Amino acid sequence: MTDLTLSNQSVTTKPAPPNEATTFRFPMQWIGVAPFFIFVLMFLILPTIYLVLGAFQNGDGQLTLDNILQLVSDPSISASYWVSIKISFWSAVIGAFAGLAIAIAIVRGGLPNWTRSAALTFSGVASNFAGLPLAFAFLATLGRVGIVTTLLRDVLNVNIYAMGFNFLTTSGLIAVYLFFQIPLMVVIIVPAIDGLKKEWGEAAATLGATQSQYWRMVVIPVLWPSFLGTVILLFANSFGAIATAYAFAGPALNIVPIKLYSQINGDVLHNPQLGYAIAFGMIVITGLANVFYIWFRTRSERWLK
Fold first, then answer.
1. How far apart are CA 61 and CA 53, in angstroms?
2. Where are the domains of the chain?
3. How many CB atoms sit inside 10 A of residue 3's CB?
4. Which part of the chain is the ABC transmembrane type-1 domain (predicted)?
5. Would 263 disulfide with which of 48, 120, 223, 275, CB 3.0-4.6 Å?
6. Where are the alpha helices (DSSP H) in the chain?
């Protein structure tokens, strides 16, 4: 009996084989997201590092701050930043308010269900409709010989170009950018409006609040972080747009993306290091915009949970 007990204890306390205890298993769950991280590394992180390093180097590869200082000292470059900020700001603000009105109408306006699906489908397509196709659509519609321009001139005797309309101005480019800014606002803000609980309205009505008081004291404070975050996102979205503006005016329009393109690939203004500095300035501005967007989005999600 004693021998049998000892043998059982020795069997139960026998350590696992070394090979089984130290076997390494590759985390298979990471295989699915590996292409994403590879894509981010190749097309976002490495190019950003390359641009940042190039912004602080001269043509011989030596470290210098001349390129960064030239962003402020060169009137043409500083003016291009100001024009881009102005276009981005107004297109973001106007697009945000217009998109918010559309989103409220299709979600809480009592419209038929098909209007919501149709508006969201169009918004999803239009928010990504930019570049050369958008420029061609506007030229074919509101160009000097566009169909709408011709109808207004021949039928209503209204010449919008004689009244000062021009795509090459700040207001003209803002009008073009609104085509994708408003739908993007609708796509982003609709989930936030859906997050407004029905019980909040019922509780406000039970406590004697009017409809305007409910919107002023409940809805607006809850939607305000989402609204501000989306405005910042729209700002960053239009700040980096180049294809549409370049299709309208080429290098003649003085905005930051076109200035950057001219510095890197232009025949006259070819200066890659200064172009890297301009790109670095754009990265700083859009990076700050995205940081504020994430912060506002976090606050809004905390309210809507």
1. 10
2. 76-304
3. 7
4. 81-295
5. 275
6. 2-12, 18-21, 34-40, 46-55, 66-73, 75-108, 113-126, 132-142, 147-155, 170-194, 198-206, 211-214, 220-239, 243-249, 256-265, 272-304
The residue written with tokens 């009505």 in the block is: 205
Contacts 24+ apart (CB under 8 A), 77-80: 77/259, 77/278, 79/254, 80/254, 80/255, 80/256, 80/258, 80/259
Which residues on neighbouring strands pair with residue 57, listed in sequence order? 63
**Per-residue pLDDT tens over the stretch 244-276:** 888 877 777 788 988 888 888 765 667 788 889
> What is the Cα 59 distance to its own chain's centre?
33
Q: Please give the torsion angle defined by the CA atoms of residues 25, 29, 30 and 34, in that order, rounded to the nearest 10 degrees.
A: 130
Q: Which residue do the tokens 């232009």 mark? A: 266
Which of 2.60.120.10, 1.10.15.40, 1.10.10.10, 1.10.3720.10 is the CATH number of 76-304?
A: 1.10.3720.10
Q: What is the pLDDT of residues 10-54, one digit of tens each?
A: 445 555 555 555 566 667 778 888 889 999 999 889 988 998 998
